[in-house]
Specification:
The chain is of the alpha/beta class. The chain is built from 10 helices and 7 strands. Helix 8 links the parallel strand 5 and strand 6. Keywords: Oxidoreductase.
Amino acid sequence: MDIKEIIKPENLVYQKSEVLNDDIMHYCPGCSHGVVHKILAELIEEMGLQEKTIGIAPVGCAVFAYNYIDIDWQEAAHGRAPAVATGVARVNPDNFVFTYQGDGDLASIGAAEIMHACNRGENILVVFINNGIYGMTGGQMAPTTLEGMVTATTPYGRNVDLNGYPMKITNLIAQLPGTSYVTRQAVHTAATARKCKRSLKKAIQNVLDKKGTSFVEVVSTCNSGWKMSPVEANNWMEENMIPYYPLGDLKDSVKGEHSEN
């Protein structure tokens, strides 16, 4: 039997959002970026926001989001996405504006920008991909790199006496009065991906309702940087990353209320 008779288009389960274009993704096999892109595209389509959405893409693997999600995009310098998003959102108050950032970008060079944007309560969504490493530039230590974790710049493992402690920046963000919704999710299983989609939808709605900054961390893998297979990376994340960065909501309130988490 011809293979084309076995695999017919009408029998395929996968359906692609119209907001996700046909470009072949360049991300490494097992990377979380593609899953998060798919979720964002689905939500933008389902909520009817394609013509109202402006994404801010900074430096890092996250910058290539503009290749795949068919919306208006603005590039930003390394770490400066929240500052750029602030200007874009204030000039276009009726649009949905979000940043898409990695941990090296957001928690290191962009630490000042993210803290002050969240403290001001800018009406933006921040999507924060945390894989504990600088994925694009060679696998260097990031602020979120775990203690003992081997990277290109910590070949013997992160030493807190030399390098400080892994930064739980999402916990810090949750303390700021300008944030309305702060959560930590993952996308490595179907169940976690569904939970992440629900969280992102809530975060988007908060932005549309002018409730202040919503912040969604996605604990992720970087199997290339970690020198692991996709399966090994998922297992390592479950055993090491998620215990240190536990999943769930850290803050869910209206603008102006402080979190106790």
